[in-house]
Design brief:
alpha/beta; five-stranded parallel beta sheet
């Protein structure tokens, strides 16, 4: 089944209880907003933030407790979101990790490629705090 732009706002299903989350985001302001939103919607989630794709891959290779979800920025230095996504999906031990792409672009070819490589969800970064909060909340089980 091919995903379309209308699929962008559909939350992953079935939902899982999220305990560990990684945000791969090179924009420090976006990362801070994400952290603020996460603090608003849940107090029981451990968040790790990395600023580029290379740091994300190093974290996955060295962490004792793998994340339940990775929110993955598409445009990062050293290794972009698609490169990270492809590498993650090539490791069997990481197949259970849900990957949600965050991007300022909703180009159909980019969205299609992300889904083909194994992204569970592709979200265009909202321009308002309230919309961003709503999207993150939809992706998480906080109870």
């Amino acid at each position: 089944m091919e995903n379309t732009t209308s699929d962008l706002l559909q939350p992953p299903s079935p939902k899982i209880k999220v305990r560990n989350l990684v945000l791969a985001e090179d924009d420090s302001e976006d990362a801070e907003i994400f952290q603020d939103i996460l603090n608003d919607v849940s107090s029981g989630i451990n968040l790790s933030v990395v600023s580029n794709g290379l740091l994300l891959m190093n974290l996955l290779h060295t962490t004792q407790e793998l994340p339940d979800i990775i929110f993955l920025d598409m445009n990062m230095p050293l290794k972009n979101g698609l490169q990270c996504l492809q590498e993650i999906r090539n490791f069997d031990k990481w197949n259970h990790i849900r990957i949600i792409i965050l991007s300022t672009s909703s180009q159909p070819e980019l969205v299609k490629t992300a889904y083909e490589l194994g992204a569970e969800l592709y979200l265009e970064k909202p321009t308002s705090y309230s919309k961003f909060k709503m999207l993150i909340k939809e992706c998480l089980v906080t109870e």
